[in-house]
Design a protein that fits this description.
Elements (H helix, E strand, L loop, with lengths): L22 E2 L4 H8 L10 E5 L2 E2 L3 E3 L5 E2 L1 H13 L3 E5 L2 H9 L5 E3 L2 E2 L2 H4 L3 E2 L7 E7 L14 E5 L3 H9 L4 E5 L2 H10 L4 E5 H8 L4 E8 L4 E2 L1 E2 L5 H17 L1 H9 L6 H6 L3 H5 L10
Helix pairs in contact: 2-8
């Protein structure tokens, strides 16, 4: 794949992490109250969602201080169709997963890889996105393949699928763990690490604004999905998947996807959500052989 002509994203920059609480509603309050009464939730009458503020293009904070991004837009649309309220609380990846396990959140709304290890801790919807894993260096970097990073300090967010990638796919690299992507970028720019590993969509957004380059790109091993409490309401998980499939069928999913991505839809995602096939055939989003 020619990295210089890679996909572009159409979102604004992420803001710094902060605690916020915002409600996304669908229908009137009476309808929302009736709908949420169907589910076993952390708070009566509202879905409590942990999200991130610095994970473009999946979850960011917009100019008005509200969460936005591909994952947030999907969740808000699903909530609107279900007639439920969503209250967002900003944390980091570890906070989302720990908060779900501790019963603080009903769902995580961000780009969270549905790994086998995480499936032991939380429940997942069917993936809603499938992308790439990128190894990123400063523009002055010369590395072009994974073995080039042997002996190099390579950063990844602690507990992320990218941390697992460094351990499994970059033998000899010296893993350095950070709490979030903001810290990763800061350390790369300051020389604290020689490379970092990000999800492809995240890397694209940062590369538009920082003097960095994509040195290596590979297909992700798993898709991004919404994590829910393991002991949560299985009906909520099922209904969310049903609404995402409905969005695929009526074209809403593709509209939201195009808002943030120009990539073809991944073949792996179509295997998970077969209804996508008819939506992308003979379009620029149809999967291509890579």
């Amino acid at each position: 794949m020619n990295i210089s002509s890679r996909r572009s994203l159409l979102i604004g920059a992420a803001a710094t992490s902060l605690l916020l609480s915002l409600t996304a509603c669908g229908g009137d309050s009476e309808a929302a109250g009736s709908a949420t009464a169907q589910y076993k939730l952390v708070q009566n009458g509202v879905i409590t969602a942990g999200t991130q503020a610095e994970q473009p293009p999946f979850a960011v904070t917009d100019a008005a201080g509200r969460p936005s991004g591909f994952a947030v837009d999907l969740m808000n649309e699903a909530a609107k169709r279900l007639g439920v309220k969503v209250q967002y609380k900003t944390t980091n990846l570890q906070g989302i997963l720990a908060g779900l396990s501790a019963g603080q959140y009903d769902i995580g709304v961000a780009g969270v890889g549905a790994t086998p290890e995480r499936k032991k801790q939380v429940a997942f919807t069917t993936p809603y996105y499938w992308g790439f894993t990128d190894v990123v260096t400063l523009k002055s970097g010369k590395q072009t393949k994974l073995p080039d990073f042997r002996g190099k300090r390579v950063g990844a967010v602690s507990g992320s699928v990218q941390e697992t990638f460094v351990n499994r796919e970059m033998p000899g690299a010296r893993l350095v763990k950070f709490k979030d992507q903001t810290a990763l970028i800061t350390q790369l720019l300051s020389g604290g690490v020689e490379a970092i590993v990000l999800g492809g969509a995240d890397a694209d957004e940062y590369a538009k604004k920082q003097p960095i380059r994509i040195a290596v790109e590979v297909d992700s091993l798993q898709g991004s999905a919404f994590p829910l409490r393991k002991d949560g309401d299985p009906k909520l998980l099922k209904d969310l998947d049903t609404q995402i499939d409905a969005m695929i069928d009526d074209g809403t999913y593709i509209k939201l996807y195009k808002k943030y991505f120009h990539d073809p839809i991944a073949t792996d995602l179509i295997k998970e959500r077969p209804n996508l096939a008819s939506q992308v055939v003979n379009t620029d989003l149809e999967p291509t052989q890579r």
